[in-house]
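step: validate -> pass
step: tokenize input -> pass
step: predict -> running
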Amino acid sequence: MHVSRRTLLKASTATAVMAGIGAPLVARAQQAEFSYKFANNLPDTHPINVRGREMAAAIKQETKGRVDIQLFPSSQLGSDTDTLSQLRSGGVEFFTLSGLILATLVPAASINGIGFAFPDYPAVWKAMDGDLGAYIRSQITKANLVVMDKIWDNGFRQTTSSTRPINTPEDFKGFKIRVPVSPLWTSMFKAFDASPASINFNEVYSALQTKIVEGQENPLALISTAKLYEVQRYCSLTNHMWDGFWFLANRRAWERLPEDVRAIVAKNVNAAAVKAREDTEKLNAGLQSELAGKGLVFNQPDLKPFREKLRQAGFYAEWKAKYGDEAWSILERSTGKLT
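step: predict -> pass
step: emit ->
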């Protein structure tokens, strides 16, 4: 039987109208009791967003639709500093932020980013799932924010450049490098006699493209997902900092959730953080050959002279004084003696 397009359209319209009669009741039944925004500065394909979507789906299912978390990746809601302000005011309910940037509000939050401190992942997780992480979380709580137990992995940071590889501390001299908006980063690269420029991540690609800066530093996963290899030529495996993202919540929004719902949300957020850690570590480990195929030229410098240069420049002594003896002694339990 031949059915004309006009007949089909009429039938579809009639069906839609009939269905619409009962729609308001259905919509009300499906409406989430708590609709929260989760913002971050990472590309949509980054493990934090992949696991974040799984996490949001699991929370929605376990709370029987009461909690609906919408993801806003790639700084869609503003720069890191803008979004932190929104989190504090309640315009955004959840936000993952590097402790090194959170340090503008909570100074102790940047201590895990001390240059050339952690030799490997086991040392990182021993510290961040142990005493150092607990100390940082206690300081974040004092700033009237809620923070989840497990920090998400951003990985060890590497240095890229459009002009030259970094093989020795002297190669940093006069080097125009983008750094996040964080005093610790600026301080470290100044100790190497570089010229650091604080630029929010959503502006990094264009800053490299227009040669405002020569280079930047980030984990390989982010260099890949943000396509920074398109505007950089060299990648030096400096492993100079380990960086992670604290999962933060607006306190008023968090306390609006019933206690049983909070437990479900926290459980799923922390489980997703652990899965994303595994993803990010695997991704970073396997990306070198892939990025080399896209044109990045890799080199592996000896890292001991970099740590020694920071010691001689008074970098460690300066930051020990800023963080205080208690925090510094907790750090050195995992890293060994730095000063």
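step: describe -> Confidence is low (pLDDT under 50) at residues 1-29.
step: cleanup -> pass
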